[in-house]
Design a protein that fits this description.
With about 45 residues, the chain is an all-alpha fold. The chain has one domain (about 5-45). It contains 4 helices and no strands. Helix 2 (about 15-25) runs antiparallel to helix 4.
Length: about 45
Amino acid sequence: MTARRFFSLLKGLSSDAMLRVMLREENQVIENPEAAVRAVERVWG
C-alpha cells in the first residue's frame, strides 16, 4: 500500500478515531508502516 492510499484512508476517519489509531500505533508507524495501515483499516473498515 502506498503512502497516498494510507493518507486517503486516514482522511476517511473521524478525527478522534484517527488520533486514537495514530497514538496507539505511533511506534509501529515508524518501524512497520504496514502494521499501521492494518490498524487504520480495522477502524475504518
